[in-house]
């Protein structure tokens, strides 16, 4: 169990560091949308290579069923193709820690969908979680002053759109993952989504100047920050279980906050720290409460 915990935390931590390294590359002049597009396609290919090694004869099975293809295309365009650019846009207009915290509100959208679908009222635990997440988002975006936004509007809007798309990613691919496998589904989703948005991101416009820090940064967000993080988190979650995995995933924004402060000298308002803590507490309550009801 300890090894599973450490592996899961390492995967979540790498996701947090990925956001910080991405912010560093943006500060060095790398175009945000180009970087997102390049990362989607390359990390998707890496996951497909993992899938090929694991199951050489099943990697194209998902393309043999019409309904699966249609669902995959929806996932590729909306759950990946829209989620990734909006998340990175939120990082660009704020910072890695804040963008990661806002994206953590994704389970709230899932919860609201479930409540509406089941025609029921939220449980006391769910209601507490909703209040904490809304309060945390309010603190981050206004610093407690309702008369003005404390962060760039595009950072907040992009972050919430990213969270909504992340909620789609949580709910939509489940059937495909059970049928075809995680690496196959996510790998094709990232790759196809990257191809779809390539014309809008101008993938062919490679940065003119490539120095050593930029090369290492790009390698990090493709391999440790995406493919390896995903593989480690999934493997760790298979050991510790989905509930603990969901709670351990909250290590991602904590890592992003700490790394941004230490490496990029990013300073945070007390309201931002308090708001992040409220969001993470709410998501933790929601995750544990879900396990108790199952």
Secondary structure: elements and pairs:
Layout: H1 2-27, H2 32-54, H3 66-80, H4 83-93, H5 96-103, H6 106-118, H7 124-142, H8 153-171, H9 174-180, H10 182-201, H11 212-240, H12 242-248, H13 251-263, H14 270-293
Helix pairs in contact: 1-5, 1-11, 1-13, 2-4, 2-10, 2-11, 3-8, 3-10, 4-5, 4-8, 5-8, 5-13, 6-8, 7-14, 9-10, 11-12, 12-14
Properties at a glance:
80% helix; single chain; 294 residues; mainly alpha
Structure explained in plain terms:
It is a single chain. The chain has 294 residues and is mainly α. It has one domain (2-293). Helix content is 80%, strand content 0%. It is built from 14 helices and no strands. The chain has helices at 2-27, 32-54, 66-80, 83-93, 96-103, 106-118, 124-142, 153-171, 174-180, 182-201, 212-240, 242-248, 251-263, 270-293. Helix 1 runs antiparallel to helix 11, helix 1 packs across helix 13 (251-263) and helix 2 (32-54) packs antiparallel against helix 10 (182-201). The relative contact order is 0.23.
